[in-house]
Structures are given as structure tokens and as C-alpha cells.
Amino acid sequence: MRKLIVFTLVFFFLGSLTYLFFNQEEKYYKLSETAPPEYVKYLKENGLDVKVEKDGSLWLNEKDKADFVVCCS
Q1: What is the pTM of this model?
Q2: Which of 3, 35, 62, 70 could cross-link to 52 by cystine, CB 3.0-4.6 Å?
């Protein structure tokens, strides 16, 4: 019985960690209102995660904020 309780607790703990790891949403912040193709190309060449929304705005991944400051300032 004790082994079953330990197994259940370990199972739920690992399941919780897996859920939290895979459920992390990527956070982006708006870099500009427009997204010139040359600018997007330059950012992608430097390995930055950017996306262009349907309204034409340019968004940068929050994790790449420091890299953006180093490469593009």
C-alpha cells in the first residue's frame, strides 16, 4: 500500500512538472507598428524570434530582448 501511495505521488509530481513545462506560453512584446521586410530579415539573420501580425506590427519574443539590445542598438 505504501508503494502505491509513493508511486501515485511521484506520478502526479512528474505530471505537474510536465504540464508546467509544456504549457509555458511564449510572450511577445510589440517592437514597432510596421514591419519592413529588410528589418525582419535582419532580425531573423541574427537569430531573434520575431513575428509579424496581420495588422503589420512587428513583435519580438521576450526571451530575445537582451540579444536585440546587443545586436540592433
Answers
A1: 0.60
A2: 35
